[in-house]
Amino acid sequence: MKTPARAFVLGADVLSVCLAGLAVYTSAFGVFDNAWVSGLSVGLGMVVLLLGQTRAPADRPGDLLRDIAHLGLALLFLWLLWRWLGIMLEQEEFFIEISDTRLMMGWLAFAIIGYATWRGFGLPMLLVYVALLGYILAPASLFGAGESWTRVAENLWYSTDGAFGRPVEVVSRVVLVFIVFGAVLQSSGAGAVLLKLAFAATGRFTGGPAHASIVGSALFGTISGAAVANVVSTGIFTIPIIKRAGFRPKFAGAVEAAASTGGQIMPPVMGVVAFLMADVTGIPYLSIVVAATLPAVFYYASLFMVVLVESRRMGIRPTPKAERERITRADWLQSLAFFLPLCVIIALLVQGRTAQFAGVSALGVACGMCLLLFPAFRRPSAWWAALVSAGRTSATLMVIVTAIGVVIGVINMTGVGLQFAQGILALSGDSLFLSLVLVMLGCLVMGMGVPSAPAYLIVALVMGPALERLGVPTIAAHLFMLYFGVLSVVTPPVGLAAFAAAPIAGSKPMETGFEALRLSIAGFIIPFLFVYHPDILIINGVTAGGLAWAVLCFFCATWMIATALSRFDARRLEPWEMALRLAAALAILWPGVEPSLAGFALALLAIGLHRLRAPQIHADKTLPTSGGHK
């Protein structure tokens, strides 16, 4: 039983390397044929995901049957893709009529895509997928769209507006090369160097190990395409150190989950979402990066605040000087393997070069630097591990964007996005704030269980029309949706990043999820600033006064919320003090100058009363003596 299982694993590894190689080739030399590149990317992704479910050696008799079934599904999907490719190439020459048998093949492919989505991403995404396919087929009497199964198959399988639509095109042509780039840096050891730099930079601060986790995850998150991957990569180092510093296990896991999630909103790569947003909105990539920079800084500054409050509450001191990391010349030199490729990406994009050219150029620089600076990376096994890791991550992403392509096709055929927008407007009336809250809830639900890039694609297509009808500027609307789509990975009951951190921390998944939600509270504030304080986006008519006001409102409100939820400032807060601080934060963030000024006054009152009631402890420098020394 061990031999077949190992053969399946080896096959998945080989095809993973092929998928990574295809991503690099198309970025470096261009697309040789649209149908072939899309078909190969989806086909390799599907086979790798299905075969990758194998665990060698197989422990139970049923494991071998499951693996054989997955192999059969993979081969069947490849056959369906081959038939699809033949029809697509024929359609390029002349129009052909698609028979009912071939249309049934399309529905068989939909079923396999749904199964693979469930295996790779769990039940939430499968429910969205099945619900929308059910909706488009259901008759109008059952509140469905009433489309025929033949038309659905023709539009969503035998076209470029469904399974092989824009998500597949953008991810396979642009995004995958950045995943290879991140895998090379992580496998070479550059990720470990970044963590060492983070620990050295934050050791002198109270709660230093937790701050180091924040900095390290922010740096690595810029090149990682998924918060969960970031948690697993950096959490195995940071979480045990945070626990040793004296923090509770659930807090240690929550810090890593919240910090890793923030990497998906941190420029310049933003977990590869920046490139998808540029394609969806038509806004230049550089404008998106500039607009997203200050909000990302806000998010991580808020995490520093929460860790500081928690450290003071638990009496945790800075890391002793003798135990702090010391950065050597070799460490600084090795850090160039990370920083130099990032500079290459920014420089090329500023020059107006394409994202894929910037990505493959950065990959080339990273490979050269890693070969030069990390001797262990010169072994063929290290390269193989990097490409396998990149290919497997790419495979899961290709499967989910194929499913999302079907979802987007349903939305385009039925207009359900506009119907959803009309429903929000009808429910909220003339209240912009209530509409934003409803969109926020929708984004959190639709993004659950899905990586940041596909989560953004889902919410942008469904929620985008609602925000556009509210008059929200395009960049503000899409960043609003991105933030809440990303934050779904730390929002219970399906907080995947928190659930990934919990086993490493030795804590319960659900309590780690709620703790991560508390730490990420600023992420729920910042998107509303996009709408009510657009100066923080910088690119649209920013004024110095408006920017300063937005910064003041954010940090004051965040401090009020952080201390209230931690129930600690200079000392433990009473329940009425918590309520007063939360009320002050709400007033500060409420639209309009007058409520904000009232909130500031309430915040000053809360802080003043707290300081007056805090116990005054004085430590004498010398001890009193009564008599002489003996």
From TrEMBL:
<feature type="transmembrane region" description="Helical">
    <location>
        <begin position="254"/>
        <end position="277"/>
    </location>
</feature>
<dbReference type="GO" id="GO:0022857">
    <property type="term" value="F:transmembrane transporter activity"/>
</dbReference>
<feature type="transmembrane region" description="Helical">
    <location>
        <begin position="397"/>
        <end position="420"/>
    </location>
</feature>
<dbReference type="InterPro" id="IPR011853">
    <property type="entry name" value="TRAP_DctM-Dct_fused"/>
</dbReference>
<keyword id="KW-0472">Membrane</keyword>
<feature type="transmembrane region" description="Helical">
    <location>
        <begin position="516"/>
        <end position="532"/>
    </location>
</feature>
<feature type="domain" description="TRAP C4-dicarboxylate transport system permease DctM subunit">
    <location>
        <begin position="140"/>
        <end position="539"/>
    </location>
</feature>
<keyword id="KW-1003">Cell membrane</keyword>
<feature type="transmembrane region" description="Helical">
    <location>
        <begin position="283"/>
        <end position="309"/>
    </location>
</feature>
<dbReference type="Pfam" id="PF06808">
    <property type="entry name" value="DctM"/>
</dbReference>
<feature type="transmembrane region" description="Helical">
    <location>
        <begin position="330"/>
        <end position="350"/>
    </location>
</feature>
<keyword id="KW-0614">Plasmid</keyword>
<keyword id="KW-1133">Transmembrane helix</keyword>
<comment type="function">
    <text>Part of the tripartite ATP-independent periplasmic (TRAP) transport system.</text>
</comment>
<feature type="transmembrane region" description="Helical">
    <location>
        <begin position="582"/>
        <end position="607"/>
    </location>
</feature>
<feature type="transmembrane region" description="Helical">
    <location>
        <begin position="539"/>
        <end position="562"/>
    </location>
</feature>
<feature type="transmembrane region" description="Helical">
    <location>
        <begin position="7"/>
        <end position="29"/>
    </location>
</feature>
<keyword id="KW-0997">Cell inner membrane</keyword>
<feature type="transmembrane region" description="Helical">
    <location>
        <begin position="356"/>
        <end position="377"/>
    </location>
</feature>
<feature type="transmembrane region" description="Helical">
    <location>
        <begin position="432"/>
        <end position="459"/>
    </location>
</feature>
<keyword id="KW-0813">Transport</keyword>
<feature type="transmembrane region" description="Helical">
    <location>
        <begin position="64"/>
        <end position="85"/>
    </location>
</feature>
<feature type="transmembrane region" description="Helical">
    <location>
        <begin position="480"/>
        <end position="504"/>
    </location>
</feature>
<keyword id="KW-0812">Transmembrane</keyword>
<feature type="transmembrane region" description="Helical">
    <location>
        <begin position="219"/>
        <end position="242"/>
    </location>
</feature>
<dbReference type="GO" id="GO:0005886">
    <property type="term" value="C:plasma membrane"/>
</dbReference>
<feature type="transmembrane region" description="Helical">
    <location>
        <begin position="174"/>
        <end position="199"/>
    </location>
</feature>
<dbReference type="InterPro" id="IPR010656">
    <property type="entry name" value="DctM"/>
</dbReference>
<feature type="transmembrane region" description="Helical">
    <location>
        <begin position="105"/>
        <end position="138"/>
    </location>
</feature>
<protein>
    <submittedName>
        <fullName>TRAP transporter fused permease subunit</fullName>
    </submittedName>
</protein>
